[in-house]
Amino acid sequence: MSGPMRTGALRPSLGWGGLLVLGIANILGAGVYVMTGTAAARFAGPAVTLSFVVAGFACLLVALCYAELASSMPESGSAYSYCRRALGGGPAWSLGWLLFLEYSIAASLLAVGFAGYLGSLLGDFGVALPAALSTPLIQSAVVDGRHALSLGAGCNLVAALAVLCAGGIAALGMSRYSLVSTLLVVVKVGVLAGFILVGMGAVDPANWAPFVPPNEGGFTYGWEGVARGASLLFFAFLGFETVSTAAAETRHPQRDVPIGILGSLAVCTGLYVLSAIVLTGLVPFRELGVPDPIAIAVDRIGMPGIALLIKVGALAGLASVLLANAFGHSRICYAMARDGYLPDLFASVHRNRNSLWKGNLLLAAIAAIGAALLPISVMADLISFGVAFMFAMVAVSLIHVRNTQPDLPRKFRVPLGGVRIGGVWIGFVPVAAIVTSFVMTLPVALDIVGQARRGDWLSVGLLGVYALAGFSLYRFYGRPRALGRLSHQPPETETPSYAENH
To answer: In terms of pTM, does the model score above 0.90?
Structure first.
């Protein structure tokens, strides 16, 4: 094929170090720089620290399932590919369509946080971003103790531009992406560590009392709020999933992918918890419901030079997650396009740059729309709702693969074993992952239903429209194409990766 574009395989170029950087790049971002403040202000108070511990433990169970599947089936697509191999095309499409939503909304949310920190940094130099260009069209506010939505007069074009820039860098290819991402990860980890060390000396212990504020109704504070905060922060760990999307581009995936998944999760959980302790010690938790909570916190330290440095680090952190998110999203769409479920442009690999350039640019444009229009609260609920379902499906896939392909080579196995019931292996870790994933979902689902009863139908409406669009796309476009590709494969080239179960 002539020209700069081809549809084919991505070349292996990553080791365990690159995967660790990729995982940290995509985990350590919105959770600490954006959502910690929202979770503390709206739900958990200073006990947001406990919310991080609960969410981190739940994600550890899922990460162990990912690690085994990635070590035994190293291919692009991550959760989508595992589900396709284990359960067939229909369930895999449902999961892939959810992943499409989660990555798109995650990019939008990260970009909104980036715009908030950029505005704070420019404000230190006397430059104010116009509200019409840096606030979303849909506004979220607390009215009589409830969170209500309304239409504003702005459009967050700053956030939209940030998403488009990240997509453009990812489209340039792995060599440029890896260099930029590594530099940003080094900067953001160092600056975040500096925030923790400097902030510890300026905290006011009075801000931690009461550590678990009394419940004020629904999921507002109390232990109910801790649970709701954990469900909100659950998605903050989604980045470890991106490591498994790079399995097909890893030189030694059976060894390196588990290291990348579990190592990045451990590093980022520790930094999340420490950052939450310092953040809620510097600022009363009710004042943290903003897109840039760490910027608010460092301004309270009273050291302008340090505050400036930390804001730059926050921008680097969010930029690195935007890049890693663009990488992971394009790889999932690549796998779905190879199977026929999405248009072939998502599988177009640039001949010279080894990048999914068309997919990167289109996905960035889609995420830019969400960044310009939606508030953080709505985006966070949509992400958390889908991530829990996705994680549960990965655990189900692991149980299925263990039973149907017991002799598949596995360099990594989930610990603690399991039991056999009627000849079927049931693992303790995957079952616990399924249970905790749905427990994480419950507070979000109840809160979304409560919002709808109060007249705020946006979250329910977006989920409903998205589900209908997914069903239509699968039924009338993806499924016929996937079955057509399967029927034209020579028998000797058919593999379980294209198995259909309709």
So the answer is: no
